[in-house]
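Researcher: Sequence recovery benchmark, item below. Answer with residues only.
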């Protein structure tokens, strides 16, 4: 970034005192790993691959992050929602297939809850910054469905609407936490200005 800021085409365009990162899936994992860098002031995780991050020792050693972090996730992320969704999909399958898939979903749902809790602890999270969007899935948070619209599920939020909401939330988060420009993000979350946005229930047990 420092080199880019000295490039004739970009000279002085970057404020290196206001660097924020944003990433989806593995990109979100990369943001989480990069947050300790002193140049980074805030981070946004878009349905990040949290299960690939091992922060247990960092938490034990007190090496936690004290920077604003938005963890924005897909819908149906709770244990109950995930199991209900999978049961509905499996109702016409064989008993063996049902059992095998449900046990796998059970393990993955528990692991996701643990990952959310550890991430919350690692970034000294705020509940208002751990949110999810109804009727969305993992790939809603990138441009995949704009490239292959025929693959989109009709029961999900229209992709244009989803991208509009995601952009609005992320920009409001940066305005509030990076630019210190009022409370646009808090207003969105607490005043329910956006339909379908909810705070994630983080289990600290």
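Model:
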């Amino acid at each position: 970034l420092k080199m880019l800021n000295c490039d004739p085409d970009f000279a002085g365009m970057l404020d290196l005192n206001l660097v924020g990162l944003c990433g989806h899936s593995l990109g979100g994992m990369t943001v989480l790993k990069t947050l300790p860098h002193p140049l980074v002031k805030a981070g946004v995780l878009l349905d990040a691959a949290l299960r690939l991050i091992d922060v247990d020792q960092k938490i034990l050693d007190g090496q936690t992050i004290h920077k604003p972090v938005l963890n924005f996730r897909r819908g149906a992320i709770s244990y109950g929602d995930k199991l209900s969704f999978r049961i509905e999909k499996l109702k016409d399958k064989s008993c063996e297939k049902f059992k095998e898939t449900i046990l796998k979903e059970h393990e993955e749902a528990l692991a996701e809850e643990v990952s959310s809790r550890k991430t919350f602890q690692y970034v000294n999270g705020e509940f208002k910054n751990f949110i999810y969007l109804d009727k969305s899935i993992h790939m809603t948070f990138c441009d995949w469905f704009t490239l292959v619209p025929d693959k989109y599920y009709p029961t999900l939020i229209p992709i244009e609407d989803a991208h509009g909401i995601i952009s609005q939330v992320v920009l409001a988060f940066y305005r509030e936490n990076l630019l210190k420009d009022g409370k646009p993000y808090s207003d969105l979350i607490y005043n329910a200005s956006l339909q379908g946005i909810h705070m994630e229930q983080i289990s600290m047990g």
